[in-house]
Predict the structure.
Amino acid sequence: MTNNIFNLSDAKIGDRVRVVEIDGGRKVTNRLMELGIMEGVIIDIANSGGGPLIITVGNSRFALGQGIARKIKVEKAYENVSNN
Amino acid sequence: MGNYVVALAGNPNTGKTCVFNNLTGSKQQVGNWPGVTVEKKEGDIRYGNRTIRIVDLPGTYSLGAFSEDELVARNYIMSGEADAVINVVDATNLYRNLYLTIQLLEAGADVVVALNMMDEAKKYNIDIDIDSLSKELGVPVISTIASRCIGMDAIIDATIKLDKKNKNRVFTIDYGTEVEKGIEELIVCINKKEELIARYPSRWLAIKLLEADEGIIHDLSRYDYAADILSKAKDLRICLAEELDTKMDSYIIKKRYELIEHIIDKSLFVKEGEEPTTTEKIDSIVTHRIWGLPIFIGIMVLVFAFTFALGEPLEDLVGDGLDAFGEWVESTLAGIGASPIFISFLVDGVIHGLSAVLEIVPLLFLLFLMIGVLEDSGYMARIAYIMDRPMRAIGLHGKAFIPFLLGFGCNVPAIMSTRTLDSHRDRMLAIIANPFISCGARLPVYVLFAKVFFPSHRVLIVISLYLIGILMAVLTTKLFGEKVFKEEDTSFIIELPPYRFPTMRGIFLHMWKSVSAFLKRASTVILSAVIVIWFLSSIPFGVEYASDESVIGKISSFIAPIFKPAGFGTWQATIALISGILAKEVVAGTLGVVYGAGGAELEAVIAQQFTPLSAYSFMVMTLLYAPCIATIGAIRNETKSRKWTFITVAYGFIVAWVLSVLIYQIGTLLGF
């Protein structure tokens, strides 16, 4: 499968993605990094669809606004079979 | 020997405040919502023959300069006031938590790591080699379970031992050849300025300058002597960024994480196992795209229904008790021949004044209990998530909803909690609109009037007032958000802590703290207010108590016409509103004093003095007009602006007056 890069905001529930790049201002980028969200990190999407997303990074869960999720570029890290 | 001062630092939701409570036994608020500790709190403990002062800093993810509470934490650490820092670290989130630890070490703090939530870590199959972690970090690491008070003595012991050990340990991160060269160059310049060395450790300052830390740059830009260093740092930043093909700040953060990864590789072992946790299961329901909002509304309805259903009978009970007590005091004192003025002081002034206020205590207890459960369970952060979409409609994001929710308890902590919001705009909006949210102190007035005039629709009337408050807060946010504070690029991120079953102890501390603050006010501000009002109602001595001939009658008669169009132009109502600025609870208390009646008697007087329409208009006035002194103080502190404090107060008064007048006039026209 090719490495399609897309915005985190477009990820679906159950997706597992890897951060490729954070394409935001320094304030947003630094804030995300301090929370442990940076290049190479694996993110699981627990909730998405219109409003803010809920993601899991390590053992932390975050709610993330659409605006900021659009600035996080990701690629699929793992196809989740059980999506309902 | 002077006090030994220990600061508590850590990420939000690490159980830091719980550690503080365990250590100091203070009645301090613990919340499972990012940013409950919005200012630093202190408590003293005895250790052998010395006193140790523990300072609880706001929970922060880093020592950056993004939000107000990060700055509070950093300034405190850098001030050197603390002899040692206990860094509370969530063992289930070591990777992210160590980021703050590393920053503390870089800042030269003497750190003891309290590796907390070891029980939860076990559930996640996380195994941490404490010795190795301690060796890698170069500081003592103590395993703790704060929720069960395990490891507390060990932390203090370790902290005290730290004091005896040689403190000249230096912690440095290798930032790579190029950057290290830059740091060296800057250090040379910094070391030439005595003023700078006195303020900051040179290596730390050099790194912060390369990171382009806003707080530091802003601080240094105030001094002429630092101008050349600032420009040198800027050149170096550009130079290095080009050389390394990256932004300097991201580069430095990455380097810190590289070190953390190295540390974690050596000391953390996870046995893989991927079952959905309880938190995930609960979240899949309560943060559901469609069901999340209805569930939240349902929970809020339950919260208020529970509060009122249980609170009202209790309130009647307390009210009746206080009535009986007043009568008993009156007859007993009359029996032993006490002077009538003294009896009037005690019964009309103190007892009637306070009983209108104390009646509300059971309701407040329940309200704070419910807010406590929401916070400690972890649901509060989910509310921010759920309310994000609705809040966007008024130009804020979900996190800004929390101050409004806390406002139902008390506006003072609510306004302080705006510190966790990242942008100035969001903070200002949340502060300006907050006083319209009906706090617990306004309840006595609604309850009193609703009981007299709308006995069969009490709950409906009270709900309508809450809704008017919410509506005004929404309109205000929209108005100021669109006309005054321009849109900023704000990002919504909030951590969703794992759900935890609220402990009885935690909830009790929570309630006790809030209610004791209320009782303290009742015994100081409110008591003095009712005494002053009683006094002004009694002089010149000889006039009929609280008549329009008394001093208070004359002052208020002069102002009262302002309120005539709103339907309550009596001097009694006016004085109640004026004294209500001291504390909103006083409004009901003052009516008790100036009408010289409590309980059922007071209700009878009010029934004569007001009509249902003017009573409603008066309740709306009480809801919306100027915030109480404590809230005004909080607004002043948080906005750091006299202008905005004044605007908020004046704006509230105008809105309240206009709305009360509209209600009364339109109501009259409609024939109510």
Summary: The first helix of chain A runs from residue 26 to 34. Residues 80-84 of chain A have pLDDT under 50 and may be disordered.
